[in-house]
Every structure is written in C-alpha cells, then in structure tokens.
Write a structure and sequence with these properties.
Length: about 475
Amino acid sequence: MQQTWEPLPGPQTNALLSQADILFYGGAAGGGKTDLLIGAAHTEHERSIIFRREFTQLRAIIDRATELLIDVGKFNKSTMVWTLENGRTIEFGAVQYIGDERKYQGRPHDLKAFDELAHFSEMQFRTLCGWLRSANPKQKCRVIATGNPPTDSEGEWVIRFFAPWLDTTYANPAKPGELRWFTTIDGKDTEVENGEPFEHKGEIIVPKSRTFFPAHVEDNPHYMRSGYKATLQALPEPLRSKLLYGDFSADRADNPYQLIPTEWIEKAILRFETRNMNAKLSCIGVDVARGGNDKTVITLRYENWFEIQKVYKGSTTKTGDSIAQLVLSARGTSNCNVNIDVIGVGSSVFDSLRRYIGNAAQAMNSAQASDAHDKSGQLSFVNRRAEWWWSLREALDPENGDNIALPPDRELLADIAAARWRLTVRGILVEAKDSIIKRIGRSPDKGDSLIYAHAIQHITGGGFLDYYGTMAEEIID
C-alpha cells in the first residue's frame, strides 16, 4: 500500500511513536495537529474515528484527509467513512449536544481521536473513551487528542485532566512526552506511581498512561514558509499567547453572563496559602449525590476560608444515614451548622442529621422565595439559589469582598465559574443546576456544596464577616 503521509521531525514524530494510552498534542496553532490524527489513523490503526464537537467543524478535517488519502482509499459521504486499500477505516463523527455521544455506544475503534479537545465536555470525552477497544490482541488501542488552550472556563477540565503538564500549580509537574499513570479511585481522578495493576477494595485496577506533547508553528516547516507565524503574531492578547505560544495559563475570556469572574476565583485560590489556620469551623455544606456519576461533596468553612473538599462517589453514599455519619465525622466536636441541600435525595440526609444534631442541621431549599437584596440594596433575588450564589460573588469581589480563600482545585474553579445569571422583572435569576449539567456535561457538585457552606443569614449591606461581627456584638450586649 502506498504511504502518503510521514510525520514531521520533532514533536509530531514523538507523539506518533508515544506509548501513552491517552495523548494530548498541541497547544499552539500550526503545529500539525490535524495531520497527526489523520496520519496516525492512516498508518497505525485498523478502525479509527475522529471527532469534532460540531458536524460543520469536520469539513476542514475531511478536506485535509482527502488531500492525504485520495490515492489510497475511498470516502463514503453518506457514512462519513474512509476505507483504505488495506482495509483500514477512518470514520468522522460529531457530538454537538450532551447525549449525542450515546450514538457511538458499543461501536469499537482502536483509535479515538478528538480535534480541539477543549470544545468537548469532560463527560463526553470520558464516555467516548470508554468504548475504545479492538478484537485484534496485537492492535494497540489509544486516544489521541489535539487542541489549543481553552478560551473559556468550560474547557478548564482539559487543564485538570492533563494537570502534570498544563497546571502550573500541580505539585509534581511532568516533562513533555513523559508518561504518567492515572485511574479513578473512590470517584476521584488519581495519579498513581506506575502502570502495574493493583487491588483496591477488592477490585483489580489497571491504570492508564497519559502524556502531553507541546507543538508550535515553528515545528511545521510548511506553515513557516507560508508566513503563518506573522498572522499569529498579529493577534490580540490573550489569543496571541494561546495560539502562538500554546500558553495554557493565559487568561480565558468569561461568558458575558458568567456570574462570578474567573479572575476573582483565581485570586481567592492564591489566598489559600495564607489562610488563618487558627480559625474555627464555622459551617459545613453538603451536596448529596443524585446517583450515576454524581458525587456527594462535604465542604468545611473556617470563617473566611474553605478546606479542601471531601468527595465521595454516589455509589458509596446510598443512604441518608451513611452520609450523615460522614458529615458527623467531619464536624467532630464543633457545634457549627450543617447546611444540606434537601431537594430530592438530600431530604433523607437532613432527616438523619436532625436526629443527631437537632436544629444545627439546616435545610437548604434553593427554590424558596428570597426577600434579601444585594449589597447595594437595589437588586432582589428570584429565589434562595440566586441569593446564595450572589452572596458568594459579593464575598469574592477583590475590591469590596470578604477576602475569601478557596482551595486549589481546578474542578471547583470550573464549577464556580460555570453558573450564569440574568436580571428578570422579579430580580436576579441564577441558572438552574440542571441547565448547567446539560451545558457542561456533568454535575457541579463541588460548587454547590461550597455555596451551601457559604450561605448564611443575610444582613443588608454586609458580607458574612459583617454578619459575624453583628453576632459578636449581640453576645456582648
């Protein structure tokens, strides 16, 4: 069979030859990302599928595949499949909406390829990767993803997933191309020492390897000769840093209706290192798993800072009393309130906690009407959910807030940044949790748990530090 594609020397060749189970290639524009996907499918795999989030975005990939494969195969426009002369197939697919990924359930491919990874939701990516397999024991199965740095908070999960290479705060950074092994332990994505199988709670777990190869326009002599670098240099910031240098730390543009600016959240995370370790436990927030991939999250608040959250798989917290016991363990000897989401499955947890700690268990019903106002006293809220979210927004305000400190957790950051708002005739309305789930493809459990831990009695014109001051004055009087 005629070979029409060869990888460029450098990062593209290194990525093609990598033994990683899940590989991310790219960063900057012009590094040959699309060619890597088509070339890997053409030269290394029997059954491949290349995804874009939207069907219309596949056009450029199909055009490039035609340039590379026209002499060695045929393309069926109705099935969106290239069939090569040696029997290899390359399919093209799109999953524009959450749930579209189910169209590909049970269809085996030994290469799952994703172009512009940050456009996909994490749930879509993980679900599609779960159907990676081959009937040929000699055929390597792998995932190759390409893309530029995310341009908004909804793509933040990519930085978290490839944290050893992309997250500047990661405790144990990795070098480009270095293999690291990960698996899911008790519902949490966890890095482990190596790829050796191990037993956890009676289950044999086999870790999967990940890696990242940065690519730049300088690695592609074809684009360098065409002057494409000058085009990238002319872009405004932060797009210039993202596309020219592949800078994953460059600012991401927030949606105009994002409730809490990402910059505010990042500043609060930076304050975590200087938090007051002598502060007393003030409140606990509990978001109860609804089932499936949801997580039960317990958040401890110490005056104006929040501890690293306690996260439990929904499958391990099936009864109200089992969750109540976890909360009691976290609460210890404190007499602080425990705020629990009581809509749906949370009601049984509330009932259990009431038996143990009485009125210290507080029912959080986000659908209830609110009679509170924002700090200015001018804006009202449609419901308690809007009141609680807006209270956190005001507390995180770098200029007039409460100097809040948040734990360094990129999933929590993404959860808090996910909520959007609008002003209605009844006041401020914050996007419903179900709407967020539909948009980002997962449940923002960490964000909601923190909202509950922060929610307190409202006092006009003040944040919750003012509230504690008022409480102290009442005790003195």
